[in-house]
Amino acid sequence: MDIIWTEEALKRVSNAPDFVRPGILKLMPRRARERGIKTITSEFLTEIRNESMLLAARRMKNMGFEELQMGAFDRAREKMKGARKQEALDLMESLLKSREKANELIIEKFQKYFQELPPGAEGKLVWTKSAEERLQKAPPFVRDMARQAIEDFAEGKGAREITPELIEEAMETIVPKGSRPAKGD
Predict the structure, then answer these.
(1) N or C: which end of the chain has fewer CB within 10 A?
(2) What DSSP line would sit under 29-42, residue for residue?
(3) Dihedral angle computed from the Cα positions of residues 149, 154, 155 and 161, in that order, rounded to the nearest 10 degrees
(4) pTM for this one?
(5) What is the pLDDT of residues 62-98, one digit of tens each?
(6) Is 80 exceeded by the pLDDT of residue 145?
(7) All domains in the chain, ordered by first residue
(8) What pLDDT is stored for residue 106 in this prediction?
(9) Long-range contacts for 42-50 (Cβ within 8 Å, ≥24 apart)?
(10) In this structure, how many other beta carbons lie within 10 angstroms of the beta carbon of residue 52?
């Protein structure tokens, strides 16, 4: 399947740091094919970025961090072996050190992912805190069945995290339109 990029998506990628750009250009078509998407849009970039940030937050939590800190690079160097990984860590640290003001914004944004990540989220699929809260609004007798259906939907789509948006998408696919409660119920 041929994958095309929107102008807006390509512009976003051109603004990414040099060391990240090749990875984005390689990853996005692969993720698009996995999900049956033919056009890479800015929204799709955001979706995959969110998944990647959540995955990175999970890995950092597994290393013992509860928030993003510059000291994480030293701990990551101890844990991650291999010249390519070490080089990537050096590039990231160098970039972050060279743009202190921007780092505050990145760290603030990244903290959201730490807060969204539930404890013990080492499995393949991760439920964000807000997605779990949404599931708790379902009647108790359907929660287990709903959880399984949503996870099956997410896995079929190739998603790595379950968000309220993914739940909404699953509901639109799984539950017949006439059976869904009206918005705001």
Answers:
(1) C
(2) HHHHHHTT--EE-H
(3) -120
(4) 0.53
(5) 666 666 666 677 777 777 777 877 777 777 777 777 7
(6) yes
(7) 4-116 (no CATH), 126-179 (1.10.8.550)
(8) 66
(9) 42/6, 42/8, 42/9, 42/12, 44/9, 45/9, 45/12, 45/13, 50/113, 50/161, 50/163
(10) 17
